[in-house]
Design a protein that fits this description.
By secondary structure, the protein is α/β, with parallel strands linked by helices. The protein contains 5 helices and 6 strands, in the order αββαββββααα.
Length: 227
């Protein structure tokens, strides 16, 4: 929890967004990238200081939708999927304009899987910090101008943009999504088989999250029993 607060303090003055293409049109390809499965979990989501409360399920739904909206536009010939763990958030409450204008933020970890290779492209999850954009509303604090739902939606959209920026950079530097030398002739069959395999991996991610939550409950029960 301390690490979460420290990260927020270090980046609170920065904008989360760059000039990343909008989702109104067809995007430039990122190699042969197509998103097959998008798994978002929140096994230990931490609410930061002076934050409005939001349910884990609402965060999961919001981030999942934003990612699907942005990445469903890609139609490369190779399948990849995302494993995302939501770590912490702040949804700014009303502050004093121009004196104390709290900023909203979201921290999450991203793992990208290559379906055909059956392995992670990044062995260590990439931790990403998302802040709300600086605009006419957020300059005076989004707690004064937006509801918690609107803040959550804005952060989710920015999270999807930062994922796009990250995987684009990784493709340029590491050729993550380059075309493979051998391909299955019938691409539709390849995708059907791959989606089935990816579903199994997604289930593993969900099971891991559920196990983590169950362990926390078990530990809490043991402590209570001792007391």
């Amino acid at each position: 929890m301390f690490r979460f607060f420290a990260v927020l303090a270090a980046v609170v003055s920065l904008s989360a967004c760059e000039n990343i293409d909008d989702i109104s049109g067809k995007p430039l390809p990122i190699g042969e990238f197509t998103l097959a499965y998008n798994v978002v979990v929140a096994p230990e989501l931490v609410m930061g200081p002076v934050s409005r409360k939001a349910e884990d399920a609402d965060w999961i739904a919001s981030v999942t939708k934003a990612i699907d909206d942005r990445f469903s536009r890609y139609d490369g010939d190779q399948l990849y999927h995302f494993g995302i763990s939501l770590e912490g958030y702040v949804l700014a409450q009303p502050g004093i304009p121009l004196v104390l204008s709290p900023k909203s933020a979201l921290i999450f970890k991203l793992t990208v899987w290559d379906d055909a290779a059956g392995k992670k492209l990044n062995e260590e999850p990439e931790q990403i910090t998302v802040l709300e954009r600086l605009d006419g509303d957020t300059l005076i604090g989004s707690g004064l101008t937006k509801t918690a739902e609107e803040q959550m939606e804005a952060l989710s959209v920015n999270a999807a943009k930062l994922i796009q920026r990250y995987i684009t950079r990784q493709h340029r530097q590491e050729q993550w999504f380059k075309s493979r030398s051998t391909k299955v002739a019938d691409t539709s069959v390849e995708k059907d088989e791959a989606i089935e395999a990816v579903s199994e991996k997604a289930s593993e991610l969900v099971n891991e999250a559920e196990s983590a939550v169950a362990k926390k409950v078990e530990d809490a029960t043991e402590v209570e029993a001792v007391n």
